[in-house]
Amino acid sequence: MIVAERKSLEEIRRTIAPYERVLIVGCGTCATVCGAGGEREVALLHAGLRAMEARSGEGWHTFLEFTVKRQCDAEFLDALVDRVREVDAVLSLGCGIGVQAIAERFPTLPVLPGVNTSFMGMAKEWGVWDERCAACGDCRLAETAGICPITRCAKGILNGPCAGTKNGKCEANNEMDCAWVLIYQRLEKLHRLEDMRRYYPPRNFRVIPRPRRIVSKAEVAVGGNNG
Amino acid sequence: MQSFAIHNLENHHLARPKRAAEDHSLIPPCQAACPLHMDIREYVSLTAQGRVMEALQVIRSGNPFPSICAHVCAHPCENACRRAQVDKPVAIRALKRFAVEFGGDRMVECEAETTHDERVAVVGSGPAGLACAYYLRKLGYLVTVFEAHSQLGGMLRVGIPKYRLPREVLDTEVERLARMGVEIRTNARVVSLDLLFDMGYKAVFLTVGAHQGLRMGIDGEESPGVIDGATFLREVNLGLKPSLGERVAVVGGGNVAIDAARTAIRLGAREVNILYRRSRAEMPADDVEVEQALEEGVQFKFLVLPKKIRRQDGYLKVNCVRMELGEPDARGRRQPVAVEGSDFEMEFDTLVVAIGQAPQMPGGFGVRVGKGSTIVVDPVTLTTNRVGVFAGGDAVTGPATVVQALAAGRQAAGRIDDYLQHRYPKDAAESRETLVGDLRPETIEMIRRIGRIEPPALPPEARTADFTPIEMVYDWEAAVNEARRCLRCGAGAEILFQDKCASCLTCLRVCPYHVPYVDATGAVRIPADQCQACGVCVAECPARAIVLRRPYDRRQVAGELEHVLRSAAQTKPRPLVVGFCCQYGLFGTGSLSDLWREAGGSIWLVPVLCTANVEAHHILRAFEMGAEGVFIASCGEQCARENTEFWVRQRVEKARRVLSEIGLEPERIEVLVPSDHNGSTAAEQLDAFAQRIGTLYLASILMQEVRS
Amino acid sequence: MAKSSFEEKLDANEFVVTTEVGPPKGCDVSGLVHDIDLLKDKVDAINVTDHQSSVMRFPSIGGCLLVKEQGGEPVLQVTCRDRNRLALQAELLFAHSRDIHNVLCLTGDSVDVGDHKEAKPVFDLDSVQLLRTARLMETGTDTSGNELKGAPQFCLGASVHPGADFIEPQLIKFDKKVEAGAKFFQTQGVFDLASLRRFMQYASQFDVKILAGIIVMASARMARYMNDNVPGITVPQPVIDELATAEKGKGLQKGVEIAARFVKTIKEEKLCHGVHIMAVGNEKIVPDILERAELISVGA
Ligand SMILES: Cc1cc2nc3c(=O)[nH]c(=O)nc-3n(C[C@H](O)[C@H](O)[C@H](O)COP(=O)(O)OP(=O)(O)OC[C@H]3O[C@@H](n4cnc5c(N)ncnc54)[C@H](O)[C@@H]3O)c2cc1C
Ligand code: SF4
Ligand code: SF4
Ligand code: SF4
Q1: Whose CA, among A17, B39, B548, C196, lies 20 to 30 Å from A101?
Q2: Do A118 and A185 share a domain, yes or no?
Q3: What is the atom index within ligand 3 of the atom nearest the CA of A38?
Q4: Are residues A10 and A110 in the same domain?
Q5: DSSP character string of B381-442
Q6: Ligand 4 centre from B637 Cα, in Å?
Q7: Which atom of ligand 4 is nearest to the CA of B526?
Q8: Could you give the ipTM of this predicted complex?
Q9: Same structural domain for residues A133 and A34?
């Protein structure tokens, strides 16, 4: 799922500065799961902003809060129609997709991001999130024992570990496992070390030409029998 | 400023919503087992919070004579209590006794208005009769209680010994009835129901009890010196002093037998034996009472059955046979069978036969009786074969318990009301489900063992000289600690807003008891029968999909906080310090009670039902409303739930992070515990904290002045 | 095309000695030139590091040009951290054009350990791919299969870590580097000869030259610091203890002693094909080590 992190209050304060009435909109899906922008975080941010305003003595904003089931589909945003009439801007605690979906749905409404969309990942344990996929468009997991070297190796290299690994940890962060050590160990268990011995040519970054789109529906002609 | 006196708080709590349709809680096993269907979980919880007056109110709302049950109830609730699966059941009866003694005036609610013309006669003044009279009177009827004896109470008066039920207790409850305007006719044995109808009574409730001692049916049972248990106890209770001689035997294994034996000891018998044909394990008598009887010197002869009695030389020669337990019968009870050739003889001065009683019905009643001379009634309407005649209590069930009799009385009152008002008789249906299912071993493993606290009792030596009541009341701390053992069965977490649940599994990961799980369809479930109602998942669910089943728990923290902030705003204290305090520790166990003394001036306390329910936004709300410092005082080790402090600290860290982003010092939020690592008390920690806040506050004022 | 002098010595199975210099942060290269002057005649080649430890500096290729100017034999270190395949190929073309043929192909340290932590880590290629890229270019094609006008020629090297705490994956990578065309290896710092011996037992099956990396430590503190902070490096406790025996202010001297002893043993026992001395900032003591190891005569 998508993992995000709340922006600093300072940054949020700056972005909402021009708008008097702000609707804080949470997302009931990924942002909820990763604890960055569900109903509870919306309430916390709301409380934080109000406390900030009250303490600064110069607060003039009014805040409303609401959490939609999912921000990244326009249909769920219909629930906002009446609410956005009351406000000058929306502060979205959804991921970057949510922010843009709201912007598309309400063409004249300012939409501000309240979180930094960080990565795609999963919970390691309560309150700890790890990145797992970079959406690189060229999945290598078949050859790497189901462990992604693109996201879990600081260098995203394909042909084995760099020499910086120590105690099974990554040279970039000694709390994180070295992906290549994990890959080696798992391949060994799977009796597939030859997967690691193979040479992997440079990655094809061409698969991420931007802007990207995937079309999974087929082009079909309707209204006649063409068979 | 002591505006925060305890009574304020109590008043405030009185405004708490009544059990309403939005109560999703399941009926806990204790309540399901209680014939009166008492809201035990609720009053135990209130007791744990030190809200004893409210606890007594809850008790009163379900029980017409709480103080009687507080002394002698057979407590089927405790037998059903799920805490027994962990260690020992909650001492519910003793807690009720505590509430009764400390919960305020006993004479309350003794007013009743007459709103109906119909008069009702209640025949018999045992608990069933008294309860029926009480409720009929409350419903606005004129009620007359007819009692054959000179005093009211039935077995409460003539059966149960005084050392278990002090007669002042009974007198007080009787007095309440009288004040309510119930007409009482003592020394009035009813012999004909027609007469009652002739006198103008429109309905009759028969509660004549079961007072006729059963006989063993052996030779010599008529001999002088042989007496039945009920009669023996009645005589003693009515002030007669039967001469027992030195050696007394009591036949039987029930509570009446134990009471008779212990009474005999108190009357000075040198040697008291209980003869029982089965073994200890099969004895129906209450364990605690058997223990107490042993302590008092009663001897038990198990697997013994009298066969023949001879009176000789002024003694009773009792011929007995040894028994052994045979194969279990259809009900799984092992029937005793005589061991061939094992006859032996014992010698006594008195033999008390306490093997049961049956109702005694004057022929003039004309009601149909069935097995064991009990009156046959419709179980829902309690109607007999005679129109307008209802019956209940021991007279219907055979010898049973006080609480069953009370329940029958209450039920009868409702059905008589239906009858007199020409309504279709129906028991009020309970819309809530009953909690079923045992705790799983894995859950039990996670629940902390906390020993049951028995109420204090007189030492055995001090008991046997006379009929002084032997059991005493808990002190405040013991009561609260005992009450905190309750597992709050059925009041736990519920994913109320299923549509909000994002299946994030936070609940699964944070639950200290590993209760939530993912079912085969992939849905997250919180099984009600395992949840310990600690509230951790409620406060952590990022979707806010979970609530504790009881409505006032869910809003408790926010509600209390707003109340305090409003009150504080009126006095504008500077610098305002707000503290969320464990209500149990504050008023219950008193581990934080020194904080209470500190409170006042600029320190305002928000009592919360477990600090694990305080969330980061609650803390920030206090700062928004002008607090300069916020602390959370948890009850530390005394918390009956797991990991509470960990969660408190998590929330505090979350709030601190936001606070520093606002530009306030994170040290403005603190966690207090009853005794910290330096051994300082909560009050000392609060002193230091208040001082710190004072300094920070001054500094911030100076800064402001510098700036402006 | 003529081989570089370094490559010739490798081919001739000479015991080769290399060392390295780090370019300055800034454009004052006088110190660098001074170091080069000091070393150029005492060693067979001088590596010029490429933003070592991800700290932004004067470029490696610029350092190599200075080595050439001073009459030395440079080894160009190329990492994949900062350039994509276009820039890397361009760099190789340029190196060849300036008669710089010795190229050490490295993945490069992580950006996180350096002084520009917010920089985008490129790693478009890894070291194995870079080696193959260079070999491909020698055939007259770039990585997209386009023909090159004039094909370069290289003596390619790579690194290997005989002392890694988990050696198996490192060996796989070593194999891949050999296969990709590495001719020589300069190892990570070696602190115990046992691991070097074990590694050589394995590496001897390949037709490549192994130059054991020798890091000169200035103090026990530095050794401990490296253990905690330098990727991949673990200085064993006995070495730290020995360093700790040094009198105050004589730490570097002790480090030189230890390094010289290592070099000497390696040479005498013919453990491998040469040594690569990394003096990390104390380049001037390299001749001292070589003298003590009796690789050069006093005053030479
Ligand atoms: C020794 C003993 C100890 C007990 N201990 C406990 C205990 O600890 N806990 C517990 O829960 N239960 C206990 N019980 C059982 C409990 O007391 C009875 O189940 C309960 O009292 C039954 O109530 P009741 O109203 O049906 O009848 P009773 O209490 O028996 O009352 C019937 C009343 O009707 C009166 N009466 C009978 N006939 C007539 C008539 N014709 N006209 C007018 N009045 C009449 C009787 O005099 C009597 O007062 C005990 C019983 C005994 C005998
Ligand atoms: S633990 Fe509490 S709620 Fe559960 S059965 Fe016992 S008294 Fe009732
Ligand atoms: S914590 Fe809340 S949202 Fe998450 S799975 Fe449990 S109920 Fe659903
Ligand atoms: S966390 Fe507490 S309230 Fe939630 S399911 Fe577990 S025991 Fe019940």
Answers
A1: A17
A2: no
A3: 3
A4: yes
A5: T-B-SSTTEEE-THHHHSS--HHHHHHHHHHHHHHHHHHHTT----PPPP-SPBP--PPPHH
A6: 19
A7: 5
A8: 0.88
A9: yes
Specify the DSSP element, H or E, that contains B506. helix B506-510
Question: 3-state DSSP helix/strand/coil percent for chain C, to nearest 5?
Answer: 45, 15, 40
CATH at B337: 3.50.50.60
Q: What is the pTM of this model?
A: 0.84
- Which value, in Å, is the radius of gyration of the alpha carbons in chain B? 30
- Domain membership of residue B18 (yes or no) is no
DSSP class per residue in B458-505: --HHHHTTS----B-PPPHHHHHHHHTT---TT-SEEE--TTT-----
DSSP B453: P
State which residue of chain A sits closest to C112, comparing Cα positions. Answer: A172
Q: How does pLDDT run across B249-259, given as a tens digit for each residue? A: 999 999 999 99
Nearest CA to ligand 2 atom 8: B30
Short-list B145, B138, B139, CA closest to B123: B145
Supply C210's token pair.
């192994």
Q: Which residues of A touch B540 (CB under 8 A)?
A: 40
Tell whether the model's pLDDT for residue B124 goes beyond 60: yes
Please give the tally of structural domains in chain A: 2
Chain C positions in Cβ-Cβ contact with residue A170 (cut-off 8 Å): 110
Chains B and C touch (3+ CB pairs under 8 A): no
Flag whether residue A201 sits within 8 Å of chain C, measured between CB atoms: yes
Instruction: Say if A173 is an interface residue toward chain C (CB within 8 Å).
Output: yes
pLDDT in tens, C130-177: 999 999 999 999 999 999 999 999 999 999 999 898 999 999 999 999
Give the count of domains, chain B.
5
Clarify whether residues A151 and A170 are in a common domain: yes
Alpha helices (H) along A80-125 = 81-85, 96-105
Q: How confident is the model at residue C232 (pLDDT cuts 50, 70, 90)?
A: confident
Residue A97 lies in a domain: yes
A49 Cα: distance to centroid of ligand 2 (angstroms): 43
Burial (0-12, 13-18, 19+ Cβ within 10 Å), B165? buried
* Residues A117 and A194 both lie in one domain: no
Rounded-to-integer distance, Cα C89 and Cα C108, Å: 16
Tell me the CATH number at A114.
3.40.50
Q: Is A154 in the same domain as A61?
A: no
Ligand 3 pocket, B614 CB below 6 A? no
Give the CATH number of the domain where residue B657 resides: 3.40.50
Q: State how far the Cα of B279 lies from the Cα of B256, in Å rounded to an integer.
A: 17
In a domain, A104, yes or no: yes
Distance CA C11, CA B600 (A): 90
Q: Which domain holds residue B530?
A: 493-548
**Containing domain of residue A193, as a range?**
143-199
Cβ neighbours of A32 in B, within 8 Å: 502, 504, 542-543
Chain A, chain B: beta-carbon pairs less than 8 Å apart? 89
Chains A and B touching, counted as 3 or more CB pairs less than 8 Å apart: yes
A184 chain-C contacts, CB cut-off 8 A = 166, 168-169, 172
Alpha-carbon radius of gyration of chain C: 18
One domain, residues B293 and B348: yes
Identify the bridge partners of residue B183 per DSSP, sorted by sequence position. Answer: B144
Tell whether A29 and A129 lie within a shared domain: yes
**A206 domain-assigned:** no
Cis ω on the peptide bond leading into residue A211 (within 30° of 0)?
yes
User: B139 and B222 share a domain?
Assistant: no
CB–CB contact A38 B544 (8 Å): yes
In the numeric block, which tokens belong to residue B25? 């809680």
CATH architecture, range C5-292: Alpha-Beta Barrel (3.20)
Residue B6 belongs to a domain? no
Q: Is residue A194 part of a domain?
A: yes
Give the pLDDT confidence of B581-599 residue by residue, as tens digits.
988 888 777 778 788 777 7
